[in-house]
């Protein structure tokens, strides 16, 4: 399963959106260089309040550009960086990847998929009603999260728009993504 990077974003301050960049540098074991969410331990405010010593399984946030088209058909205008993601992709089914999938991006960077983003009410502060478009329920009543996936950096490198994304599935039985 392969895709392409369409945008990269980072922000050194706690804001909901992240400005697009020409490139971002991924640092092994930390995340995006200069991004407020980079670090060995949790950096998301709600997680820090619960236990600041927990490992940071949310170092890099990826979201599929196809989601923007989907919510656009319902009248929402969302572009790369708007939902706080670091890497926007196209052509790879991020939400269907199993836990532990390795994503090889560009020449050097390698991410390990840890789980689904658990969207919060800030999405409705950004655009009212958008949260219901990125979190819903399937026909069996199960929660479906569409706001991207989270990962950790296994191998650092520079990531730019236009870079390829190649997924390598883990061995053994695959575990579906859960919120992290």
TrEMBL record:
Domain MOSC: 18-168
PROSITE patterns documented for this protein: MOSC (PS51340)
Segments crossing the lipid bilayer: none
One Pfam assignment: MOSC
Coiled-coil intervals: none
InterPro entries referenced in this protein's UniProt entry, alphabetically: MoCF_Sase_C, MOSC_domain, Pyrv_Knase-like_insert_dom_sf
Record protein name field: MOSC domain-containing protein
């Amino acid at each position: 399963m392969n895709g392409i990077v369409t945008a990269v974003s980072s922000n050194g301050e706690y804001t909901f959106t992240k400005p697009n960049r020409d490139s971002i540098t991924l640092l092994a074991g930390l995340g995006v260089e200069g991004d407020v969410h980079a670090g060995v331990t949790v950096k998301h405010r709600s997680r820090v309040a619960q236990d600041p010593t927990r490992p940071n399984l949310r170092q890099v946030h990826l979201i599929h550009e196809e989601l923007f088209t989907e919510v656009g058909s319902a009248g929402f205008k969302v572009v790369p960086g708007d939902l706080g993601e670091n890497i926007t992709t196209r052509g790879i089914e991020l939400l269907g990847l199993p836990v532990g999938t390795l994503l090889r991006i560009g020449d050097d960077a390698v991410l390990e998929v840890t789980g689904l983003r658990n969207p919060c009410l800030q999405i409705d502060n950004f655009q009212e009603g958008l949260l219901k478009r990125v979190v819903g329920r399937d026909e069996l009543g199960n929660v479906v999260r569409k706001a991207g996936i989270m990962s950790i950096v296994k191998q650092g490198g520079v990531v730019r728009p236009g870079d390829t994304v190649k997924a390598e599935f883990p061995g053994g039985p695959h575990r579906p993504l859960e919120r992290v």
